[in-house]
Amino acid sequence: MELLWRHSLPPRTGGRGPRQTVSVDDVVTAAIGLADREGYEKVSIRAVAAELGLRPMSLYTYVPSKEALTVLMVDAVAAAGAPLPTDVPARERLSAVARQIRDEYLAHPWLFEVPSWRMVLGPGRTRRYEQQLAAVDGIGLDDPGMDRVISVLTQFATGNARTALAAARSSREQSDADWWETYGPLLTEVMPAAEYPLSTRVGAAVGELYQAPGDPAGDFAYGLARLIEAILPG
Questions:
Q1: How many whole angstroms separate alpha carbon 220 and alpha carbon 223?
Q2: What pLDDT digit, counting tens, does each position of 18-39 carry?
Q3: Do 77 and 32 form a contact (C-beta atoms < 8 A)?
Q4: Domain co-membership, 154 together with 179
Q5: 5 in a structural domain
Q6: Average pLDDT over every residue of 137-146
Q7: Residues 228, 94: contact at Cβ < 8 Å?
Q8: pLDDT band for position 154 (cuts 50, 70, 90)
Q9: pLDDT tops 70 at residue 15
Q10: Cα atoms in the Cβ-side hemisphere of radius 13 Å centred on 191
């Protein structure tokens, strides 16, 4: 907790030790860069030390463990987010809450690999929550209702981001055109239109529209609009 709030606490006085050549911020930035490039599984004390040109044991003078480093990384990502707008209509404020969460996961896919249920009570996440509450404030909800709205928007944005990342990964491995060329004839044989009339009709329509098996970005825009309509009173 002291590491999370290090910039808000008074500097420690007294004590002697080797002069530090980098800062905790430098360590966290290096770890985030490594996770963005190679995935969370590649983040280790040894790997981050190598990024900074340090010996692995020296990194423990900055962070005590990978678990502590992970907490700092998650909070730093939240702290780097742009402020949410406050001078726009409620519909746009709610949309901004969800879009910020989705964009964050798309930019840092490794966030899906770290524990998220227990809140990281650092300055970045706390400031983010304050801004989210301000986006919801004034639309006629009680305090628990405001928190519920943030949770629902976050869960919707997170789930859609997971789908979007999976779709992008699948497309890199095999294009949609190649997939349909390989499996289309078999599907036509085992799924006759007479037996699956709705699937055939709707599947053809969305396939022509999306030129892909699905449209995560379009789903997000559509679903978010419906969610906000349900959230806003009257």
A1: 5
A2: 567 899 999 999 999 999 999 9
A3: yes
A4: yes
A5: no
A6: 94
A7: yes
A8: very high
A9: no
A10: 14
Cα–Cα dist 39/115, whole Å? 15
The SS3 assignment for 179 reads helix
Q: pTM for this one?
A: 0.85
Instruction: Look up the domain containing 164 and give its range.
Output: 90-231
C-beta of residue 8 within 8 angstroms of C-beta of residue 82: no
Residue 63 lies in a domain: yes
Closest alpha carbon to 135 in 186, 81, 70: 81
203 CB neighbour count, 10 Å cutoff: 15
User: On the CB side of 63, how many CA atoms lie within 13 Å of its CA?
Assistant: 26
> Tokens 């519909």 map to which residue?
91
Q: Does a structural domain hold residue 14? A: no
Q: Which residue has the tokens 């650092």?
A: 122
Q: What's the alpha-carbon Rg for the chain, to the nearest Å?
A: 23
Given the structure tokens 């980098």, which residue do they identify?
Answer: 22
* Closest CA relative to residue 45, chosen from 1, 34, 78, 19: 34
Number of structural domains (the chain) is 2
**pLDDT, tens digit, for every residue of 55-69?**
999 999 999 999 999
Tokens representing 198 are 């709705």
Give the tens place of pLDDT for each residue, 69-115. 999 999 999 999 999 998 999 999 999 999 999 999 999 999 999 87
Q: How far is C-alpha 77 from the chain's CA centre?
A: 9
